[in-house]
Protein 1
Amino acid sequence: MAKGAGRATLYALFLVMASATLGRGEAATTFRWSNDGDPTTMDPDARSDLFVTTFDMNMYEALIRRDRNLKLEPSLATAWSNINPTTWRFTLRQGVRFHDGTPLTVDDVIFSVHRAAAPGSDVASQLSSIKEIKKVDDRTVDFITYGPAPILPNYIVNVPIMSKAWCEAHHAANVALGSNSESYATNHENGTGPFMLKSRQPGIRTVLVKNPNWWGLKEDPIDLDQVDFIRIVNPATRVAALLSGEIDMVYNVPPQDIERLRHTPGIKIWQTPELRTIFLGMDQARPQLLESNVKGKNPFKDKRVREAFYEAIDEDAIATKVMRGFARPTALMVGPGITGYDPALDKRYPFDPDAAKKLLAAAGYPNGFEVGFDCPNDRYVNDEAICQAVVVMLARIGVKVDLLAQTKSKYFAKINAPGFDTSFYLLGWTPTPLDALDMLTNLAETRGKGLHVGAWNDGGYSNPALDRLIKEISVELDSKKRNALISKALSIVKDDFAYIPLHQQIVVWASRDNVDLAPMGDDDLQLRYVKMR
Amino acid sequence: MLAFLIERLLQSAVVMLAVALIAFTLFNYVGDPIENMVGQDTTIAERQQLRHELGLDDSVVVQFARFVADAACGDFGISYQQQRPVGQIILERLPATFELSFVAVAMAIALGVPMGIYTGIHRHSWLSHGLMGLSLVGVSLPTFLVGILLILVFSVDLGWLPSFGRGTVVHIGWWSTGLLTLDGWRAIIMPATTLALFQMTLIMRLVRAEMTEVLRTDYIKFARARGLSNRAIHFGHALKNSLVPVITITGLQLGSVIAFAIITETVFQWPGMGLMFIQAVSFVDIPVMAAYLMLVGGFFVVVNLVVDLLNHVIDPRLRVDRVRVGIG
């Protein structure tokens, strides 16, 4: 964007059209921010979408929340513990009031968990371990689970506590995503959180105001009186709005703009590794690949072929060139910040195309083979470009990859259950409870053996020894023993080349330099942490 | 006239049905909305249940029939993305697109017609050459580039105009207008300019071509021979006779301005129907896409109808032709 002679002509040309100057004189404590997503509903039970949930959870609160380092901390519950292996006991905070002024009671908590766990709620699947909820007294509630549930508190973070009376009065006691009518809770809120909904134009602007009666104000003074969220879909416009001072903070900064923004006076860049791991998966289930010229057998069933693919891919080049440095190469399927992550195991096998060629030859493919490759083009940062780089890298060892990059709605419908219509694919995974068990269950456990078991194991990887280990982890309450078991499981996944992990993206947020905030690896902008000078 | 109107209305109904059918056939290729509606932890059974509730597991024919039946009663369903009635969303977005389109077309006419007249009369002046050169730029620069350039200059560098949105709007009943506030006018300048640029050059070139043509005709020579002033010739005779095709094209262009405001709306985050449609496509929000396509189809049908009727009124020859056909 260098200044030039052409610029002067442009100024002259359009001078007439600009008659007045931009008003920027809003109150200093209004925080205006923008994203390409939109909080499509004010009902956090209705959409388990990262952006919607994190946005709504500035108004609603759960029993437990995450602090700026993603550690669990008390929110509406002051304490929680296992009183026996299948019972979690929560102690409710006293003196909390909903935004409509009514006090929070144990009955509201029980109602909210039932609402979240009922059919039609999109959070229900996270609560499938809960058998029943019991009121012990006016400030104590017990969650009884089918079996030991060590990470139940991690899921409780996503369960908003709503007012029973409010929901029932407005016919919003049930969530129904597929329903043919509009729910009151879609456009209104009545939470307990630090911010309250002031006005809402879906897809355009959502305005929140500070809750002056929030229970946490003493420890956590809220700096913002008002928060304007403005959806700006076009990345160039979003960045322009930040540069012109109309917006105080944006996220989902386009990678090509980061360096320019970093060197722009008045703009601050925030970055932190994201919790999502980007990886490649291979169909190891079918006797013959759907998209390949190898007939009668499946090359990916041979561990040497998977290893060859791993060694042929130069992840450092992907991280520095394709991702422009905004990626952290990983050897594991979970990154730092996820419970169970083991830095000792996080060493990638070397990039070695010659060894890869030898492995392919030993497996019976001295001249390589052809395989189809599925990739989204609008889901992850530079997803299609990563896939194109993989195609070129695999061509060097003689594997001819036929890339099909398409929009996420088509891509996921193709590769996911029930069809698993793919041979080789790129995917990203953030464990919802920020615990490695979720990754192991969804991606590495043999599929078809239970509700979530292998639900995203699109390549059909199966290892009975690992399955047994995962079952052990899921009921182990001692965190030291549990972490040791997880390390063992992670190293099996790694050494089996069940997947080819690539990297964790780096979350990049940009703001005006008078903004202070807490960038979080789960892309959660917690407004209570935002300060403006 | 009545027979003509009835015939045209019947044709319109057929066109609308065809639009709906094509739209529904296309929806099979845009992807799976369920993937966008639920989180990663939602089980296969829950996904299937949702698919069933939304009627997405029915055949295209059944879905189409259901849509037409509901739409005929004015019910366009619930948006998958916003969980709100589609009719309500469209009513919210309609005023923004209409204001943008009308301001853009008004700008195009207000600037395009005089420029066309000038270049038509003074074909060899340096200003004409300059305007013609500029018009080439206007035709060939893509909308998103013009929009981004305007934002760069007037919002980022100069800080004069807002880079997104409608500014302050005033609500009059269900209609929202930005044209009653200074803020609203500031916000509309850049998007309207971007949208008007192509139309303006089109109108200018059209008027110029028509003027040039008409100025060569015998009756203009005769008028000159009668000693009429240049002013009377140019505006009283030449311009009037140049305007019939200009009205037709401008009218038809109004439909396409509304339909193709999509890109301009996306660049300026203008909260109109085009932006709504783009967001619906990326989410595979079938009820919103269907309603939008029907609406745009409806605009084109209505605009065509009105233009035909206007031409009937303006140009007597069309009426005579019709009568002759009727007799024959």
Protein 2
Amino acid sequence: MTMGSRQRILDSVRAATHADVNRYEDVPRGYIRAGSLDLQGCIQLMTERLHEYGADVVQCAPVDLPHIVLRQLKQSGRHHFVVPSGFPTDWMLSGVEWLIDQNLTHEEIEQCGGVATASSSGVADSGTIVLHHGPMEGRRVISLLPDFHLCILRVSQIVETLPEYFSRFPQAPRLATYISGPSATADIEMTRIKGVHGPRFLSVIILRDDA
Amino acid sequence: MSGPVMDPRIAPPFPDAALPILQNTQLRKNVAHATDVIQAKRNRLVAEKQDWQELRTSAAAIRAHVLANLGKYLEEFETNCTAAGGVVHWAKDAAEAGQIIVEILREENASEVIKIKTMTSAEIQLNPALEAAGIAAVETDLAELILQLGEDEGSHIVVPALHVNRHQVREIFARKMGLPQLPDDPEALTAAARTYLRKKFLSVSTAISGANFLIAESGSVAIVESEGNGRMCLTLPRTLIALAGIEKVLPRFSDLEVLLQVLARSATGERLNPYNSLWSGVVPDDGPQRFHVVLLDNGRSEILGRKVERQTLQCIRCAACLNTCPVYRQTGGHAYGSPYGGPIGAILTPQLEHMRHAQSLPYASSLCAACYEVCPVKINIPEVLIDLRAQVVDQEREESRRWFDPMYLGMKVANFAFGDAGRFRMAQSFGKLGLRFFTGKDGWIRRLPSLGSRWTLSRDLPGMADQTFREWWAKREAEREKGAR
């Protein structure tokens, strides 16, 4: 039955378009691709956008990172944190409970107050954190169930515009999540409410590269 | 509270459905407030975007390119999605799509399924089909949850419960969730929904989503959302079914750089939606381990073959045309009798019904073209509306009973009178004579009897001039000739 429908749909689609000549190369691309800001400007814009979303943003040097991670996690008022399997162990100082995600169950992850991950890219123009869910960013579920998300973004990963992100990653990753502010709804009288289902609190560490 | 009729096959014509709504001042207030807020945000963010028109041009061109090459891209998507571990199904119509989904859920022994908001599932009336099969659908989008618990119907493509206010939401939640003490501030109401749904997310093992975009080159599916209920449904269950119209394909991953930008700004007035998710097929140890895509035709390939109407399929469901439409802003979505309301609904719904239902919708417009101006993929909605109106008139002409229709007879008489100069002159003289009686001192006609009152009920009509253009022209020519002599 389905096979029959497949052929039928494709046949009528082809019949409807057989006379069309429309080449992909001819699509006009007059929009802005590359941004105009320098690195400092990008970092500043990224920070502003994240602040607009109510995210907490700090910058730090690589040498200070483990301490800053610990400080931010402690400040969240939570105690148990899940981290992806590839999260560097030297970023995990003692002082909070760490849980490394080796195929944890949903219930185990749900019990964690927060999550700490790296990120794959950051888009300053929209304040977007990109996760491609590799070993450093973790499985999708760990950055979803806990209520607090600490995300480490390297300066070298920040681009200004969305098209610049796509130039860096022309091939689709198997998985990607683009986070532009914490979970929100405006479904009741257009009043913006933070935190419907995803993490309600987002904290970002912008990690300066080694000088 | 019984919901409005949102099935175009049985819904009353637009003017009949709109009339009682226009008297519902609370609903109109809610709709006006919501559309004002979204429009203000949208306008501010569009204004800050220097390359907005260039983005629109590209978005429209990408969508038009996809439609012109749809067969190729659908097969490419199928190949790549299958290679990534997904199962692709094809459904020619709503009934077949429903059957496919029910069958998959039966194989999963599912008695419950969690859903991300999907317009396409409303289009195919999926929830009643699931219910008939003994499967309970749980809507997880906050607005959809409000509607489901309130036994109401969506009235907007992006914010479907915009016609309901906080007091009404409180009443519904208090009753259905057993929370009599629930206050009516949006924060508390949202928290109640979070708690209610969290249990569902963690316990239900099958989910249904729509698709904002299908990526041909990678076989990926993209979902944009705000709340995170989408991420929950895409991540936690064992099995996921994505239902998508065949027109939703994009050639390449990087085409999202255009479409995501215009969609977010147009839909909710954001630079990007809070959450966008992308996945291809099945990824070991991450998310659902069984993944199905149902590609739905349901009239789309027919629309594709029509020259003027094809652009309807460029739509990315941002609902900017609803928010700006002077008709929608007065009536809200229920008057359209279809999940797709507003200007895009007025052109999409009758076409999905093969022009056999919803013929009043192409008339539910003032043709002011505000919808065209805001459309991020440049669908010339007024052009399509006019073409569909012509089709409706053609249909009516076919039906013999129209001979008794005064409007049709009037048109026939006009056709006869306007068809010949002598007859036209005569009609003008009669008309002048006849209308003089109804024309006020200021030259305007405010009230006409019987059939004519249908016009003057809502607008004035200028009286006929003392001198017709032809008379004036003939006189002028005569005088010039005299002068030249």
